[in-house]
Amino acid sequence: MIAAVAQVQPGQPLQLPHVDWVTIGPAGIFFVGGLAMLLAGVFLRRRVPRGLWSGTTVVIAVLALWPAFHLWHQIASGGARTAIADAVVVDGFSIFIDVVIISAVVMAALLTDGYLRRENLEGTEFYVLMLFSASGGMLMASANDLIVVFLGLEILSIALYTLAGFQQRREGSQEAAIKYFVLGAFSSAFFLYGIALVYGSTGSTNLGVIADFLRTNSLTNGLLLGGFALLIVGLGFKVAAVPFHMWTPDVYQGSPTPATAFMAAVAKAAGFAALLRLFVSTFNTYRLDWQPIVWALAVLSLLVGSVLAVVQTDVKRMLAYSSIAHAGYVLVGFQTASNRGVAGALFYLFAYAFMIVGSFAVVTLVSGRGDTDASLDAFRGLSSRRPALAFVFTIFLLAQTGVPLTSGFLAKFYVISAAVEAHSYALAIIAMIAAVIAAFFYLRLIVVMYMAAPAAEGEEAAPTARIPIAVGAGMSLTIAVGFTLVVGFLPASVFDFARHATLLKL
Amino acid sequence: MFFLRNSWLIPAIPGACFFLVLFFGKKMPGKGADIGIAGVLISFLLAVATAVKWISMSTPRHAVERHVTWFKMGGIDVHAGTHIDGLAVMMLFIVTLISLMVHVYSLGYMHGDRRFTYFYAALALFTASMLMLVVAPNTLQLLVGWELVGVCSFMLIGHWWEEEINSAAAIKAFITTRTGDVGLMLGIITLFFAAGRNFDIAHLNRLALTGGISHHLLLVSGLLLLLGVVGKSAQFPLHVWLPDAMAGPTPVSALIHAATMVVAGVYLVARVYGVFFAGFSIGPHAGGINWVAAIGGITVLIGAALAFVQDDVKRVLAYSTISQLGYMVMALGVGAWTAGVFHLFTHAFFKALLFLGSGSLIHAVHSNNMSDMGGLRKRMPTTFWTFIVGSLALAGIFPLAGFWSKDEILLGAQRGGYPAFFWVGLVGAFMTAAYMTRACYLVFWGEYRGEGHPHEAPATMAWPLRILAVGSIAAGWLSAFGFHGFPSWVSFEVEGVTREVVHEFAFSVPYAAASLAVAFIGIGVAAGYYFRDLGPHGLTRRSSAARAGYHFLEEKYFLDRLYINGIIRSIQYPVARAAYWINQNVIDGVVNGAGFVSRMAAGFVYNIVDQKIVDGVVNGAGFTAEESGGILRYIQTGRVQQYAAVLFGAAALFALILVLTTA
Questions:
Q1: Is A8 part of a structural domain of the chain?
Q2: pLDDT value at position B621?
Q3: Which of A213, A243, B25, B58 has a C-alpha 20 to 30 A away from that of B565?
Q4: Which B residues, 121 through 180, put their C-beta within 8 Å of a C-beta on chain A?
């Protein structure tokens, strides 16, 4: 990163910029913490108490909250600013995304503990990869330079590819990793080419400089627009927006479920962070050019995600499609390019992170050793085997449906009201219709969980095996369900947080 | 003022009961029913006290509003609280009363049910949600209550979820009403912006009636809200869920039909009436038709027609509810606000009575079908007499409750400048009287056709019937013969608006006589057909036209088929499958193609470069390493951390060297 922004003059020694470490504190703590764990793992391999690594990850994540809070107060008093040779930006927006990612890491790490033990995969690598990946996501959120965005994207992605293939012995996991990697590499190439085009037409990769340039010059050639398109492709892939969503069901299904939970929450938050910053803030003067593209992406994501989820019989795939639909809602907020829209998108991402990690946590527990069975049938009669688990899952599903007194209702309400405010009535209507379609499969899953009916002929009987719930997974679920309900009842603080998490005006 | 100011307790107590029953219900002697009944009883007493206080206030009465800030959204304080006026007071009374009756009745009806405690918890939540909706001072709280009512109805309709048909009905109810909610939510958001970022209902009404919002916007948001009403209050063409919702336990049906859920839609229209009134230009000079009245009018007739062809006694009542809700919506549409609300009030008594009565029948004969009943008049006297009272009230026979409110609606339509809807109402009255006569005949007269020996319901079930029967007789007198009780207590008034919205028309003997005559003709015709075997029996066998008509009704105008085959299947099957196919084949093909190319390339690399060249080198190196004593073998153990440790160790070493040499 430093090399990317260093001022290199012929014949001069390299001028390094002043590095204000606190500004990249949260990402830094994750990165350094990951390194430390990696090394510690070598020496403590055999003599670790249960849950040490998971606990350490949680501690690292919580530690990262400290610079985040510090920066938040700094911004509140002194305003947003850029740092490290203008390569990173410190604003409420980046802090908000940091907090979303930190929350997702905490829940995913707690969930992973029991999972790894169940699968005989104990070790530090999973956690380390998660920390690295998350640090990449945070970097994307606070990047003020296209090259830094790309760096963050790659740090995020490469660790994710590995996480997807973490269960080496299972073919599905390998396939997921390869698919994700091959396609991810394509999308990175798109993104990079997009950077090149934007650089070519504006003469800089720095977002501030680009914004200034675009304010004073109106470009008529297609170069810049081509750049926009390619950037949207690259990031649209990360957030699983239709039509760049193809990998999502396969990868979500094949990956180890805690990794799925992690990538569903973190990759989406980071991808949207970059999208929002680039388009709403930097390319704001060209919003009439990019808004139609985002509009189309939103409509496609909403409808394709909801409709295709209906025909799924595997719960992981179903949740994958539903996460595509969720991306559609965030795009609805994004499309407005207004303050309310951005705040709505942020609120949605925050609420979504808890719902989706919670949902996948339930799937982790139910699908059993080896992640073998996440079909609808595996959930049949869950209420009689594990009433608490069924109840918790019901809450997550209702939240995803958008039922009041859960965070999901206010999240949907917020983005849709932003769309109405921006006079995007058609989009608001489509978003609501998608919610109705989506309600169908969420409810079907709820019904299946509460049906312990003796199976009809030709169907397999409901599974009866006991589902062990690891302590960490229990904690993870408690956090997720607690957030979902508390924010549903008392959303004031999170609303305020999202509202003050504004993008730095460039 | 205590009761008016603290009316938040009325929804809060059942809300608390929900948690208490859920967590402690199983340990209680009454398995949770005791908590639920006690809670609702307290709420009911509070509601009565509130009503007494409201009535004893000096006129003009002003709404009592209290609220706290729920959250801030974009600088706007969103409140949660209570807005108590005549309409709210009436609803609080009726909801808590019906809920109390249902709670008590369920003691007998649900006795020994496998999820008895859960049932009472859901009932408490259902009641609390509806009460929260009723007291809502703003549209957002109303929306929250509205959606929660939907969720609770999902839980209760699907109470016996083990049977596929019940859970399917629950999903259908939820999805259909949610289709309407698309409109409701968008309508609320549109009004929010139209009213200058304000959710407050009183403010909305005031702006709408004083021209603070453009007519165009009011029409759009009115139509959107109307869509929500159509879904929730089972109006044509989204009425299809209500008959299926009969799959739930009968006490739940009573609650849904009389006091919660379906009346929420009517209540919404009555509550934000300013928007509807101005948006749809309701009033005597409006040309005699508008969307609200038209939807209501159509629903009156199609609901009543369908009630004729049902065998399931609960379905007869379900279609009757659809038809009666049509009356209410129609009344509001023709500007007869008081009449519509009054009909909601009276209907609650007799429809709850009829449903609980039918529950008593079902409890006795273990079947929903009227073809398994018959001749129950002697065997179940309490049920018989109360059911007859309910039927007569529903048919609009003097001097029972339904007569007074239906008469007001007819009068309002005619005098209010909507004569077409007067005739719709009159035809509806005829049909209502006729289909209820048919139902009573099939259930109580003739020979018993079922199995076993039906017996009268236990006391916990009989007493609610008696109480509701008294209500069905008496409730209408609150507005009888021009007595100004109900209209003065419950009226639509918006502070700061002088424009007269609600017209009242004096009781008119000719109109009352006409509607009563029509009801008697309905009873007479049906009685002649069933009791005396008069008229063209076997018409459906002889005439193909009649058969076709019967089939058309039996198939519920083919609306269900249209929705299922035309809409749901078309999404579920071709569209979804095609999209899925493209997803799987085309896109995967591309991916696999890419994969194939990479595999070829990888194969080449693997076979030629890796195996032959690199391996050769590595083997050579390995050979050397082995030779040199296996020290280096430790480096290649397959453990990623060790690789990393070596890597970082080397990096640290180089850094150290760098620092040392430059310093």
A1: no
A2: 44
A3: A243
A4: 140, 143-145, 147-148, 151, 154, 158, 161-164, 167, 170-171, 174-175, 178-179
pLDDT digit string, tens, across residues A335-390: 998 888 999 999 999 999 999 999 999 999 888 777 777 788 888 888 888 888 98
Distance of alpha carbon B33 from alpha carbon A231, whole angstroms: 60
> How does pLDDT run across A258-271, given as a tens digit for each residue?
999 999 999 999 99
- Domain interval for residue A380: 20-500
**DSSP 3-state of A88:** strand
Tell me whether 0.85 is exceeded by the ipTM. Answer: no
Residue B266 pLDDT: 92
Does residue A238 carry a pLDDT above 70? Answer: yes
**A4 has pLDDT over 50:** no
CB contact, 8 Å: B576 with chain A? yes
**pLDDT score at B400:** 85
pLDDT per residue as tens digits for the range A302-329: 988 888 888 788 899 889 999 999 999 9
- Ranges of H-type helices in B366-380: 376-379
How far apart (Å, rounded) are the C-alpha atoms in residues B285 and B86?
Answer: 28
CA distances for B13 relative to B118, B130, B146, B589, angstroms: 17, 13, 18, 60
* Tokens, residue B563: 């929705």
Average pLDDT, chain B: 78
pLDDT of B624: 44
* Phi then psi dihedrals of residue B71, to 5 deg: -160, 170
pLDDT tens digits for range B119-150: 888 899 999 999 999 999 988 899 989 988 98
Is A13 inside a domain boundary?
A: no
| Residue B644 reports pLDDT greater than 80 | no
pLDDT given for residue B592 in this prediction: 55
Domain tally for chain A?
1
Query: What percentage of chain B exceeds 70 in pLDDT?
Result: 78
Query: Over 80: is that where the pLDDT of B35 sits?
Result: yes
Chain B residues whose CB is inside 8 A of the A166 CB are: none
Cβ-contact A287, A279 below 8 angstroms: yes
Residue A144 resides in a domain: yes
User: For residue B278, what are the CA distances in angstroms to A115, B206, B290, B375?
Assistant: 60, 11, 12, 52
- CA separation, residue B318 to residues A114, B429, B466, B555 (Å): 51, 16, 22, 15
Cβ atoms B77, B140 nearer than 8 A? no
Chain A residue with CA closest to B588: the answer is A246
Say yes or no: B21 contacts chain A, CB-CB below 8 A: no
Residue A91 lies in a domain: yes
Nearest Cα to B35, choosing from B52, B22, B50? Answer: B22
How far does CA A384 lie from the centroid of its chain? Answer: 33
User: Using an 8 Å Cβ cutoff, are B440 and B446 in contact?
Assistant: no
Asked, as a colleague might, if the bond just before B536 is cis with ω within 30 of 0, I would say: no
At B497, give phi and psi (nearest 5°): -115, 120
pLDDT of B550 = 66
Q: At how many degrees (to 10) do helices A222-238 and A146-164 cross? A: 30
Cβ A311–B591 below 8 Å, yes or no?
no
pLDDT digits (tens, 9 = 90+) for B223-245: 999 999 998 888 888 888 888 88
Token pair belonging to B366: 């273990």
Closest CA to B247 of B339, B149, B141, B318: B318
CA atoms of B146 and B228, how far apart (whole Å): 10
Q: Is the distance from CB of A235 to CB of A132 less than 8 angstroms?
A: no
Q: How far is A447 from chain B (nearest CA, A)?
A: 7
Facing residues of A116 across strands? none
Buried-state track A84-121, b at ≥16 Cβ within 10 A, e below 16: bbbbbbbbbbbbbbbbbbbbbbbbbbbbbbbbbebbeb
The Cα-based distances of B63 to B133, B311, B489 in angstroms read 16, 46, 12
CA of A497 to nearest chain B CA: how many angstroms apart?
11
